[in-house]
Amino acid sequence: MTPLFCSWLEIGAVSPLRVLDRLAKEGIAVYGVRKCSPVRLKIRVKSKELRKVFAILQGSCYTVKKAEESFARRLWRRACSRPAFAAGLALFFVLAASSNFFVLRVDFVGSGARYRERACELLAQAGIRAFAPYSAEAAETARASLMALPGIVFVSVEKRGSSVTVTLEEEAEAPEPSYARSLFAPAAGEVEELVVLRGTALVGVGDAVAAGQELVAGRFETEAGGGETFAVARCTLVCTHTYALQSAEQSEQASRRALAIARLRAGGEPVREEISVRAEGDAFVYTVTLAVRVRCAVNMGGE
Predict the structure, then answer these.
(1) How far apart are CA 63 and CA 57, in angstroms?
(2) Computed over its alpha carbons, how large is the radius of gyration of the chain?
(3) Whole-structure pTM value
(4) Any bridge partners for residue 108, and if so which?
């Protein structure tokens, strides 16, 4: 059963759900969890254990800040400052307790709510069911049974009024990595180097290839046959580009400018370059031929 005086803390981390395991190892009970985003989590702990939680997580990869206090704690502070209000509040709690002794409804929330049917069976075995009296001992027994469900990392059984809310949270599964199937040539050129760690090479060193041509296929061949896979490979191409650039003058400066423009358009690592100039009317045309080295890879980590 959730203690009367609790506070919400906001936890920030790459994998915030792991903080639940860490707090459990330190003996800190968590009475509520709200997943705000993949990297933010709100947890509910006893107000008197706030300092201990901050001390446990100090200097770790988690960022912690106080989000809000429970309504009961705020109400208690107000009651302590106003005696008449405290008397009325006490009467209200007596009436509320007598009317909320029985459970009228059980709700399920959280990512593990798909276990609803099995969870209902475990709750009933512990004595938590509709139109039955509620007890904290039965709730704790049910919580322990629910924690044994596969993949469940957090369970809370909370009673509010005549309703019981069961929170079930599953361990988040990491998405399966996706891989490109084949390696394709980013530009037309000649194969200078080809390294294949996985897949089937479709070209060899010295071959001329077109832009977009498949260089390494995502399949494998064995004596028993073949099958589909994903390629792991890298390739170096030497690509040749020719540019005709017009200038109003014939000079060393104009030649360097034409070469710089050609390098910028071609990209890659320069291997060799040639430049010539011819008169055309009142202008001059610089013809720049560049050979550049272009590298490409597929599923090679940082490459």
Answers:
(1) 8
(2) 35
(3) 0.43
(4) 166
Q: How far is CA 21 from the centre of its chain?
A: 19
Q: DSSP for 246-288, please give it.
A: EESS-SHHHHHHHHHHHHHHH-SEEEEEEEEEEEETTEEEEEE
Length of the chain: 303
CA distance 34 to 49: 19
Instruction: Decide: 206 and 190 in contact? Cβ < 8 Å.
Output: yes
Q: Are 229 and 260 in contact (CB under 8 A)?
A: no
Give the residue carrying structure tokens 């639940």: 20
Which residue is it, tokens 């001329």? Answer: 208
Mean pLDDT by 10 residues, the chain (303 residues): 75 82 86 84 85 84 75 63 64 57 81 83 88 85 88 87 86 69 93 93 94 92 80 94 92 92 90 92 93 92 60
Report the C-alpha gap between 122 and 132 in whole angstroms. Answer: 15
Residues with Cβ within 8 Å of residue 216, at least 6 apart in sequence:
182, 183, 194, 196, 199, 200, 201, 202, 231, 233, 235, 298
Q: What is the DSSP letter of 16?
A: T
Q: For residue 187, how far is the Cα from the chain centroid?
A: 34
What per-residue confidence (pLDDT) applies to 257? 92
Residue 46 β-bridge partners: 6
CATH for 100-175 (3.40.50.1370, 3.10.20.310, 1.10.472.80, 3.40.50.2000)? 3.10.20.310
Q: What is the DSSP letter of 4?
A: S
**Contact by Cβ (8 Å): 113, 168:** yes
Give the whole-angstrom CA distance, residue 38 versus residue 14.
Answer: 8
Residue ranges covered by each domain of the chain: 1-71, 100-175, 177-303
CA distance linking residue 162 with residue 164, whole number of Å: 7
189-209 CB burial, b ≥16 within 10 A, e <16: bebbebebeebbbbbeeeeeb
Q: What is the pLDDT of residue 176?
A: 61
